[in-house]
Specification:
This protein is α/β, with parallel strands linked by helices. It has a 7-stranded mixed sheet with strand order 9-10-11-12-13-14-15. The two termini are about 15 Å apart. The protein binds zinc ion. The site of zinc ion has 6 residues, from loops.
Amino acid sequence: MDFFIVSGGRFKLDGGSVFGIVPKPLWEKIRPADEHNRVDMNTNCLLVRTGSSHILIDTGYGNKMAEKNRRIYGMSGTTIVDSLAAIGVKAADIDLVILSHLHFDHAGGATVSDLEGHLYPAFPEAKYVVQKGEWEDAINGYATMTSSYLEENYAPLIDQNMLTLLDGDVEVWDRIRVQITGGHTRHHQMVLIESDEATVVYAGDILPMTTHLRAAYNMAYDLFPYDSMIQKSRVLEQAASEGWIIIWDHDPNVPAGRVYHEGEGRYRFEAVSFKA
Ligand SMILES: [Zn+2]
């Protein structure tokens, strides 16, 4: 198996919403804010190549955001399709797209629009998977922010019969399984990949950045912050004891690494770089 971190676009979010209940004097020491109080984020997606198959986890925010929103979120950089092209992978090469959840910064790249505004699945040969409960919450707008779920990101997948709704913890590919975490959204899922060298875990928004290792550092968007905290500590504990590689889906600098327990629920990380 080969792993590649592929960006689905850089953006910025208000630091208060990124760090939840943590006071600014604490978080700004580790992640300085810009003049609008925003902090830098990336959308780190994971491409897994196994044999001749390509599995993509999350898709960034895509190419459909309105100019006003692009400005508000300070969006810059490439789309997932361009990032894949840069490493020689065509959209049609993707066999499976696993979505951790359907918020726009994870599912926006799942569909693309042409110049006339027609919407298409971005990966024409892929099967897309997400939890059934996440899909239901998305169409019912069950979110802390009304703009989190945008129909344009997943309606074309249903129309084209390309979206499979999962029911719980299942293996979605040989040696790749999903596990519901809840916390960030009710049916948010993480992805565990067993390679010969290590277990790689894409924890999604349960562990968004290296700055979120400590228990209280949860995003304000979390529907159930307490559940996020518990899930995060479980993942960190197992990752530290079993040498898992964690993918931080929003870290602007360190997309992957291992964690080491330093006692009393504290962890430090060391970056791991995948060959590109
Ligand atoms: Zn989210």
